[in-house]
Amino acid sequence: MLDFTFLSPAVTLSELASHRLISIGYSLPSLLATATGELEGEAYAKALGLALTIIAIVLYLSAQLLGELSVRIGLPAVLGELIAGLVIGLSGLHVIVLGGDAEVAGWMTMLVQSLTGGSDRAIADIFSGPVAIVLEDYAQIGVGILLFKIGLEADLKELIRVGPQAASVAISGVLLPFVLGFLGLSTLFHLDNISAMFGAAALTATSIGITSRIMQDMGVLKTQEGQIILGAAVLDDILGIAVLAVAVGIAEHGSVDLEDLLRTVVSAVLFVAAAIALNRFFGQAYMSFLEKLKNPYSVFVGAILFLSVTAGFTSIIGLESILGCFAAGIVLGDTSVTKELEEACEPLIALFSTVFFVTIGAKTDLTVLNFTDPESRVGLWIALFLTILAILTKMATGYFVFTQDKVDRLAIGAGMVPRGEVGLVFAGLGAATGALSASVNVAIILMVIGTTFVAPPLLRWAFSRQTPAVG
Fold first, then answer.
1. Which residues lie closer than 8 Å to 264 by C-beta, 6 or more apart?
2. Model's pTM, two decimal places?
3. With 70 as the cut, is the pLDDT of residue 254 above it?
4. 470 alpha carbon, distance to own chain's centre
């Protein structure tokens, strides 16, 4: 059996003890061993295969349709994938049901039963057991590949060029929302420290993809403001993922130890700094070696091997493997084959990351937010609080730009607003660790949706107010 645990940052040791990751390497004997009732052997394998096929068709078809609709109205495709999950998951049709006491839609079990035989209970167990595990594991592989590609796309030379300006925006863009978010969630809504930390951490993210696409469409990507935004967004990813690694680690240990927290933060920063140094002294040499090999797939396979080793090493030294996935991308970025690697990652992202974003939506139960229920009302207020704070704190970062140049600070702040796919990673991992209640998780999802929706018109308004300064 292949072991893809290096791509599963949210899986704890106890979870690994209960089941190993099975996404690509899950063997047929392992599945047959879980057979129940009259479904055994070939009949069980047939029912499982049919169930996975139906799920795959519904998942990818809904993601494609709603992703296409999102793009056509000027929104990122990832938002459509999230909404697709809401439609086919717990909040909608119950085609995908992951965790909890809910069961898959009746027509799904009836369809599989009519074609393969077996009882309703046996078919339902297939959907709640092996099918759910396969989806979860595909989603976790999607996280690893996505963060690896984000690391590849980090333009370190440009980051160094805009240096102090980008750093001042990024640092304020992490500290402001995190500190205010943590204080607000813990004091106003009385959340425990771990839940408040995850909620506040989700506020620190900035979506490079969404911001850069909007600025490119507007023709302002090469302006000084545009370059500062991109540099700050890259730094935001580095700092934000370090914060996420800390939050996941604390959630797994179940307590907040200031000494451990400081050690983890310092280790994460040093690890990313080492990755940046390795990019200069190792990345190109390693890629050049792979290019000399005769196997046409050597570059990509070698990159995945390095990703595996790096992510595994982070786990060994006590950090989260998500940081290793991101750092591996940084090390191998800005080389002669970086574009080739990015293109090679695209099919994997289309396959696995789509599952990740759809399953985030599928796990989100919007029915928990109900004004008639006191606990649900709290979740709605948390969503409103997070959304407003998410917008205001990022807008404020433009006024922390460390520069003597005349720049449009409001436009810079507007460029930092969208959370997009990075914010969803925070929400997904927070839910997977069990650190977040259903209502808080939904509140974070709604914050991500809100900031993603507001970003395009906000950016267009901010840049259209006056002619940006050209750098």
1. 245, 246, 249, 318, 319
2. 0.68
3. no
4. 33
